[in-house]
Amino acid sequence: MSIVEPGSFLTLHYRLAGPQGDIINTFNEKPATLSLGAGTLTPALEQRLLGMAEGTSAVMDIPAGEAFGDHNPDMHQWVARKLLNELGDPMEKYAAGDVVQFPTPDGLGAYAGTVLQVNGEGAVLFDFNHPLAGQPVTFEVELIGVL
Fold it and tell me: Alpha helices, DSSP H only, in the chain?
């Protein structure tokens, strides 16, 4: 039976939930595949997988701020409507709670921001913190395979 070690390649179902419910849940879809240390999961989540045996299931309660860091108010930023028009659809309407994808500066990846507020000129206040930052997290895992 294989055991999770640093660098292991995993096939698993997992669920991340905060006080408001699920953020990610793969139990009703195909299992996820990932390589430990590649950045798919935070170090705090990966640390909890180390030593688990293939075929194991677990539910772990992680204290507030440990899984995704503390909520940082400096990660709230206003984005001008002009820039939003350049990056996406100029006809797009934004509302509080919407999650918007932005390209990374190198154009090779993306990151998300949650709309907090829209002002009269169309500028949008985004929260670029992870949705579970500063919150307790439930991490449920069904470890299907370990390579």
Answer: 43-49, 81-87
